[in-house]
Design brief:
Elements: H1 32-35, H2 39-52, H3 56-60, H4 62-70, E1 74-76, H5 83-89, H6 98-121, H7 128-153, H8 166-169, H9 177-194, H10 207-221, H11 224-236, H12 238-241, E2 264-269, H13 283-287, E3 304-306, H14 308-312, H15 319-324, E4 325-326, E5 328-331, E6 334-337, H16 341-344, E7 354-355, E8 376-381, H17 382-396, H18 401-414, E9 416-417, E10 420-421, H19 434-448, H20 455-462, H21 465-468, H22 493-498
Antiparallel strand pairs: 1-3, 2-8, 4-7, 5-6, 9-10
Helix pairs in contact: 2-6, 2-7, 4-5, 6-7, 7-9, 9-10, 10-11, 10-17, 11-17, 17-18, 17-19
Pfam family, one: SusD-like_3
Domain SusD-like N-terminal: 96-219
Keywords: Cell outer membrane, Membrane, Signal
Length: 509
Amino acid sequence: MKTTYKFLFLLIGLSIVGCSDLEEEPIGLLSPQGFFNTPNDIQTAANAAFGHMTHEDFWGRKMSLTLMLRGDMVAIGDPTTSARRIEHDIFNVPNDNGMIDGYWLRVYQMIAAANQAIAGAELVDVDESVKNPITAQAYFARAFAYFHLVRQFGDIPYLSEPVTDVDASGSISKTPAAEVYANIIADLEFAKTWLPNTQAARSIPAKSAAHSYLALVYLTLGDYPNAYTEAKGVIDNEGVYGLGLEPDFQNLFDANQSGSSSEPIFTLDFIGASNGDDGRDYQAALTGLRDDEQYGLGGGWSVGVPSLEVYNTWDGRDYRKAVSLDTTGVFDGVTQPFTVFKESGAGRGVNRPHIAKYTRAIGNFATGNGRGSETNYMMMRYAEVLLIAAEALNETSPGSAEAEGYVNRVRERARNSNGVTSGLFPEDVSGLSQDDFRDMVLEERRLELAFEFKRWYDIARRRLGSEVFSASGLEGEKPNFDPNQDYLFPLPADELARNPNLMPNNPGY
């Protein structure tokens, strides 16, 4: 089921722009006292926060591509692409990088819309049991937005209510990351308490989404007991939440199949239509093979392309490899292997397999190059919850058969290719040391969640950069990577110029 989010820009003293760009001319002024009268008004305001998430500035292109390129599985395929993308790929990011500038404001717009819904709910005179399940969507959206920001930037401005004083907004200071995380947890706890067990679509957060994100937040903080408790809470409520692993891994990336799957927990839905860059899906274009005819997309741009070692080191008996990668393309009606992509295409691609997850079955693509797709981007899915539980339990109770069982559930599907079971993985992963089990689970996350914008966050939270960006890494040595700097992004230069209270910038920038 697809959900179209209605954009409502509730501009009260320019509150929608968060803490940035406060000279923008408002498109309208609407008093909350005049708007918020019914629970439907809260819903409309909350929808605005989710509407921003599919914009080109956020998951359409800028943030999503940034996360993908900073990992160790995807590199630039087209050397003529914009410098702002290449800078993330080679860890040479200035504080005026255009990717960061592009999405910083958009994320604060999400936050501003969520804050408006939360504040407006106070004006609606109905019982909490009626309005809180709706308001909880805004709490979830705010936590989701801040969780991305704090992992990327560390200390950031934290806004918990609409900004109505322009002068005051220009002197907002940074909030310590620990405090931001505490607020994220509080928001997710509220959402977990009040959201219903299920929703009409996975693009509307249910209790399972808040529950699962709490597990991931605690995992990110290294609070493994709480990470396990939250993940186990989701697993124990698998039936209540309507969750399960999709039997065929390919169906998760088929726009005609994924909407009815029980595996996605929270998704961003692209609906095959866009208003400019609102709701336009650029990943199909950015990761697709240039001039490829096989999907009728008009070909992609070969910007984000897996390194050759990703393909070479991925066991071919793993069904996820075939689903995740395209090793052939069609040029002038002729199917060609990846070894001649550059010669067969327009000459700006590379002779490497390309990502197939966002090109193979994307539904409607009326805007060309796949930008009008109907893809459901899974921000959280059940397989990840199982792996969170396994990773966290290994840290508190190494050698646990329970943790092994969670990994085996994920691996069982990876062995199953259209009903044909391979002998790739041992069904018994017992006997591993704590360190070996940890490495195994992180590797399992790398393959299970390949190209799903998770890998950079795993590298950063486990401080793996010096290892994975060394000469033995999948992309070879990245000499610019500095572990003292590059786990955090620079705060945008124009934000610092606008508000000196945000100084100093993160170390090294």
